[in-house]
Amino acid sequence: MTDTPAPLPAGPIVVGTDGSPQARHAALFALREAQLRGTGLRAVCAYDYTPIRFTGYGWMAAPEGATTLYEQLHDVARQAVTDTVHELRQQLGGPEVEVEIIAEAGRPAQVLLDASKDASLLVVGTRGSSAWGRLTLGSTSTEVVHHAHLPVVVVPADSRGASS
Fold this sequence. Notes:
CATH superfamily: HUPs
CATH topology: Rossmann fold
Structural class: alpha/beta
Strand content: 15-25%
CATH class: Alpha Beta
Distance between the termini: 48 Å
CATH architecture: 3-Layer(aba) Sandwich
Number of domains: 1
Radius of gyration: 18 Å
Number of strands: 5
Shape: globular
């Protein structure tokens, strides 16, 4: 008689979202995948408008009352992700997926990598930059692919059928 171990519960699927059409495609893909796998979804929005951004520049300082400004930026980012996920859930239908919303200040690639430590899959969109654009501007999807410790899906900018 062989005892087979019980399957471990799958970690959530993490999706990076920033309100762009490409991020909506990625979020829809991630929701569908979470339904298929019977796991949760962690929707992550990273933004970089923190006091740290202003340090190191003698001539530039964080504006007075910045704490309130940063709290407002966090709340706006979180609400935008919440609204997008709610809309996509209604559009998709099907089994209910437990969703965790995270809005965090920081470099998008690093925030996504940190948020995916216990995840089973990381999903990001891409704006479809040329090779030159990735070299000169940097790319969250490229950085995530190179540094992730788990499977990554990069949903292309032109993902036909992603919004249907």
